[in-house]
Amino acid sequence: MSHGQTYLYNNDQTYYNQDYWSTIDFYHLPGTTVNTRLRNNYQAQSTASSKSWAGGSSINGYVTAGMELADPTSALTGKKSYFLFDNELVALGAGITDTATVDANNGNAPVYVHTTVDDRKLNSTGDNTFTVNGTVQSASLAQGVQSLTGVNWAHLAGNTASGSDLGYYFPGATSLKTERLARTGSWSLITAGGSTTAVTKNYLNMYFDHGTAPTNASYSYVLLPNRTASQTSAYASNPDITVLRNDASAQAVKEKSVSTVGANFWTDALTTINVDGSAYLSSDKKASIMIKDWGTSLDISASDPTQSNTGVINFEIQRSASGVAFNDANVTVIQTSPTIKFSVNVNGKKGAAARVKFNLAATPTTTRYEAESAALTGVTVATSKAGYSGTGHVLASSFEATGDKIVFSVNAPAAGTYQLKVRYADEVDKAQYLKVNGVSLSNLSLPSSSGSWMDANYGGITLNAGSNTIEISKFYGWSDIDYIEISQ
C-alpha cells in the first residue's frame, strides 16, 4: 500500500479472509503512517507518488526496503524503512511531518498523524491475551483507547493453537495507544455493488500517535512472529538488533546474531553510519545497501531505489579486505585497504541491486601480558596510578638502577612477525632497552604522556613458534609499565 502497509502471514491461514477487508480500519492498516483527515472511497487511487525513492536491496533472504512517503491528499511526508532478517522485521520511521491541525471538510475535527504497529484481527470472542511489559491487559472490548507509556515489549496471543502468536519489541521504550474493540462493516462500504450485510470482527489496534502537525517525528519497532510472551520478554532484554541511525538523512539497523547491516540513505550528500560509536559505512547518494559479514568475506548488495540517478553511487566501508571474490559488471572496486571503497554505476538499472563480495583479511589476534605477572628484577609492583590493567603496574620510581628489568614470557602460535605495543606512563620523553629472545633491538621510545597511561606502538618484532621472551630494561628508567600486547 502507498503508505507502507505490512502483511504478515503465519499459521492463521484464513486471516485475510473471513471479512478482514470489510472490517479493517483503513486509517490503521498495519505499518502505515497516515493522518486522520477524512477521505472518500477511491480518493487518489492510482495516483503516482511525487517521491521516487521506493525499493531496496537483499542478500540471501535478508532484505532492506524503504519508501519516501508523500500523501497524495495532504502535506504528510516521511521516510519509512523495513529490515527483514532471520526471524524479525524492524520498522523505522523518521522525518514524519504534516501541516494540518484541523480538517475543514470534517467539521474542523483535529487531524492526527498515526503510525500503526498492528491492527490485528482477534478470535470470535476477542479475548486473545495481550501482554505489555509482563502485565496482562484487559480483554474488554469496550474499554476504549488506552494510552501506554514506557512500553518495551508486548505480546498478542494468536488465533490458532500454535504458530500465530506475535511479539513486539520497542527499542528504548515508547508511548503507544491501544484499543481492543468490535468493529462492524460491510463490503458495500468499500466497494460499489458489494454486499450490504453487516459483519462484525474483533480487533486489537496498536499505534504511535504523532499528534497534530508533527515535525520530524519518528518511531521504531520490531515484529517478532511466532514468539511466546516469555520469548518476547527475553528478546527485549537482549535484542539481536541495534538501531544505528533513524533520521531524515539515513536509517540503518545492525542484526548482531547474523552479522548483517542494512541502511537506506535518503539524500544526495555524503552521509555516514556509525557502528559501536565509530564510522562504519558511508554513501554520497540516495541508496539502499545491505552488508553481510560471513567472517571470511563481506557480501554486499546495493541499489538506487529512486531509479533516477544517471551516474554512480560511491560507498566506503571502514574495513580492509584481502581481495575481491566477485563483482557485478557495474561495480568498480576503488580500493580494498585501509578501507573498502567501491562505486556502483546505476544508470539505467531501474532500481536493480548490484552485488560485490570482498575476501576479508584474517582478523588480528591480540594477546595481553601484564607487567605485574612478568619476571621482575629490581622493580616493584604498585597500584598507585589509577587506570591500570590487571592487578597492578610496575612502579616508575623503582625502575631506576642498572639491571632493573621486566621479562615477559610470550607464546607465539607460529614463527613470524608480530606487532608489539607497550602501555606506559611518563612525565617526559624517555627510552628503555628492548630485547627479544636475548637479542638487543632498537631502543623502546616512550614519548611523554604527561603522566597519563598511553600506548607506544613499537612495530614489528620476530618471534619463534612457541615460547619467547621480551625484555624491557633500564636505559633512562623511571617509567610506569602496565602491560605489553602482541598482535599478528
Automatic annotation (TrEMBL):
Keywords: Lyase
The keyword Lyase is annotated on this UniProt entry: yes
All copies of domain CBM6, residue ranges: 367-487
Pfam family membership, one: Lyase_8
InterPro entries hit by this protein: CBM6, Gal_mutarotase_sf_dom, Galactose-bd-like_sf, GH-type_carb-bd, Lyase_8, Lyase_8-like_C, Lyase_8_C, Lyase_8_central_dom
Descriptive protein name: CBM6 domain-containing protein
Organism the protein comes from: Paenibacillus glycanilyticus
